[in-house]
What we know:
The chain has 21 helices and 21 strands. With 729 residues, it is of the alpha+beta class. It folds into 4 domains: 162-212 and 535-663, Topoisomerase I, domain 2 (Orthogonal Bundle), CATH 1.10.460.10; 217-325 and 458-530, Topoisomerase I, domain 3 (Distorted Sandwich); 333-454, Topoisomerase I, domain 4, CATH 1.10.290.10; 671-729, no CATH class. The strands form 5 sheets. The chain has a 7-stranded mixed beta sheet with strand order 2-3-4-1-7-8-9. The protein has a 6-stranded antiparallel β-barrel with strand order 10-11-14-13-12-15. Helix 10 packs across helix 11 (348-360), helix 11 crosses helix 14 (437-451) and helix 15 (539-547) crosses helix 17. The longest helix is centred in the first third of the chain and has 30 residues, at 153-182.
Amino acid sequence: xxxxxxxxPSMAQAVLPHLPKxxxxxxxxxxxxxxxxxxxAGHVLEQVQPGDYDERWGKFPWAFEDLPIIPxxxxxxxxxxxxxxxxxxxxxxxxxxxxxxxxxxxxxxxLLVDEVLLHFGNTKPVARIxxxxxxxxxxxxxIANLEDNTQYFPLYEAGLGRQRxxxxxxxxxxxxxxxxxKKQNYPGVLSVGRVQSPTLAIVxxxxxxxxxxxxxxxxxxxxxxxxxxxxxxxxxxxxxxxGLSLESAEKQAELDANGEAEEDEECADADELQGAxxxxxxxxxxxxxxxxxxxxxxxxxxxxxxxxxxGQGVVTRYLNKPVEERAPMPFELTGLQTAxxxxxxxxxxxxxxxxxxxxxxxxxxxxRSDCAYLPESQHGEAPVVLDAIAQGAxxxxxxxxxxxxxxxxxxxxxxxxxxHHALIPTVQAPDWNSLTAVQKHTYEMVARQYVAQxxxxxLVDKSKIEITIADERFAANGRVVKDPGWRAVFQxxxxxxxxxxxxxxSTPLLxxxxxxxxxxxxxxxxxxxxxxxxxxxxxxSLLTAMKHVYRTVxxxxxxxxxxxxxxxxxxxxxxxxxxxxxxxxxxxxxxxQLVSTVIGRILVDALPKKLIDPGMTARWEALLDGxxxxxxxxxxFMKAQEETIVExxxxxxxxxxxxxxxxxxxxxxPYTGANGKPTPRPVPAGAEKCPKCKKGHLxxxxxxxxxxxxxxxxxxxxYPECKHSVxxx
Length: 729
């Protein structure tokens, strides 16, 4: 008798039709022809509270003498509202002869089923099912290809290491900095997290860059040239700073148009743009800033006049080559969240929840994926998937009809596929009219990206011209689409992969020129520009910053290491991290923008670098990946975490929190009566007068949050003016 344990009921529901009949539904499970199917509801076990290890760790208010909290023997307990379902699993484990782990195919999915089996001391053989999607074809294939669960024990250990490391940081450091805040009568909890704190620091850093930003004026020079033999094709070009190559001209033009340098992972010329300009001797002229922009208007006017007077220039370089632009990769979760946030304003959590709904309905593959590649074996399923897209999203039917399933894009690469593959539609078509607006937008965006894999490359002619005139150089860039190829799938809209990357301004058709030929100078313009601050983060851009955290690191070697990682957090957790810093009021949403609050900045200022350094957090994730691949022992990882916690607690105890201004204190909502208007709190008969303020009365209160949630005490009705309280002994 085989027991299938799934992560959630919906997964069990998807598998049931493919298991032996008859099926008999019971309380918390289904009896099948050869066993049982049951389910969890996410994690049903949780780490116990510090007070469950040692009484002194549970007392409130918290005190530094009780820190650090480091359990010797880690304990889990059954989550209160999930005890009934866990009891069902326990009983079925006694009846069955083998088990199937049906958790999600990732670190957490492995952990949440394995921890239940270990909790009950299961010794029966365990198999593992991996389902990349919930459609019937994929489910049948997964059932036929069960694996030995023991080979995934390192993945379980990685999940356990993550769970314990997060607990150590959260329990110890949240207590430490809340203790410091209480000294200033701050009533809230200053939560600290392994991923949460670096994410908050990213937002704070950007906001401070904006606050400290001082706009600076600069000037650009453009000249219009024409080949005397082709007067109908005049073209504009931009002045090239001394020492800057023609190949870097387009990036410099983007920089000038933005008014401020942008971090771009694909900017191969970044070092050149920042520091190559200069004379033959290597010295940068005083009238150029670090970004090679002219900051002296008189010099700009002088250069323009010199060029205008010269009248003619010579073509010193002419490049023209056909380029094939490949289709954008299919989405991984962070990319999809970023794209939908940019286009429709959806939050990261909203996108994850929506994609999860589509996944559970069988229309798309597993959502929590960091991978943009697809297994080569799935290429053969393309005709069926494309038919499902045409049926489920009828307005895409023509695009599907023009797709060529013999095309194999770079997305199909087994070597690049990890635990999960890219987010794509399944063979099970949705009913378009029954989808919500956000479901339609989500499905369509993923579907278009998939369809694009079966279109040819976009064929483009790219031209670059360098003109030398009066010892000055000008550059022009042209781009002409010869065959749109996959771009036809997006019907004139820039694909998500191009968002924010397209060159500013037009890229016109340039004439064909011969090197060393003469061109006439028709006009010269000097344009006044002003630098602008970097943009505030949105949920979409913050997700990208978390994923590409290496961009915030200045050390070249460290930057190189971090680029190979997948940033801080994981696709499955980043949305929740953003929700947390919003909920804690460390960050607030102003329209689409995320802005750090006063208390959020104070917390970042107080935390040691180890807790806010994105590089440190990303390296922790690398160690967890090492555990999952048997390269790092779990014990070694935990020992390092414990040593770090001891060090961090000592540092916190020796520090002080920056002054918390009154405006950073959480606003207390006034008590409202039956009429909905503010009114004094009712005082129970016989309530004792407050011995401290002599104005209020001591009344029963219940702790709503924190380690003492649910406990009762007596507090003054004159709170927050009076914070006197009496706790039971």
